Every structure is written in structure tokens, then in C-alpha cells.
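Morning, I've got a small favour to ask if you have a moment. I've been staring at a protein lately and its backbone has me curious. You're getting the sequence in one-letter code plus the fold written as C-alpha cells. I've dropped the whole record in just underneath, so have a look:
=====
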Amino acid sequence: MNVSASHHIDKGNKDSQGQYEYHYEYDLYEFRENGICIIARSYTDEGTEAHFLRKEVSGNQEMLSNSDLLTPLFTQAVKYLNEVGKLQINYLCESGYESVPIT
């Protein structure tokens, strides 16, 4: 498994008081193996949480399915996130965010 992490800041325009309309700071994690990439995000103000957003297969974005949760790549990704201090891990599915049990 190949892991890459990148830091991002998204912010809107400043208002008359010098405050940003919105400000999000987060890290994206990409877990790659055999042409599949699983992507997770962790907001810096929620340091112990991470959310799996999607997978990419041959450049196509797909929603994670229950069967994806059983793959070695997903299992290794959860283990990696847990080792870097992410204690609450969720994944995005059709019904919203669901918890991933950490074993």
C-alpha cells in the first residue's frame, strides 16, 4: 500500500471585519494499491476523526460499498489512520456517514 497525505485550506472572502466567510483546514489521505485509491479526509479541528470519502478505480470516482470495507486495502487504511491517532473513523455511503469499527 502506498500512502500520501496532503494539507489543504479552503476559505472564502473576508468580510468587513476581516473574518473569512468560511475556513476549512484538513488533511487528505490517499491509499493506493493495484490501481485502486481510497481517499479519506480529516479536519484539523477534529484531529481524532477521519472520514473515508470515496474510492477511485482507473480514474473513475465511486462511492464505497460494504464489500470495499472488507478489502485488504481498506483494512490497512483504517489501521494506518488509527496509528496516526484517528480514533473515530467513518465512511460516506448512500445513506450518509457510517462508523467503521476499529479492531
Remarks:
- The chain is about 10% helix and 50% strand.
- Strands lie at 2-11, 23-33, 36-43, 49-57, 60-62, 88-93, 96-99.
- The first strand starts at residue 2 and ends at 11.
- The CA atoms of residues 34 and 65 lie 18 Å apart.
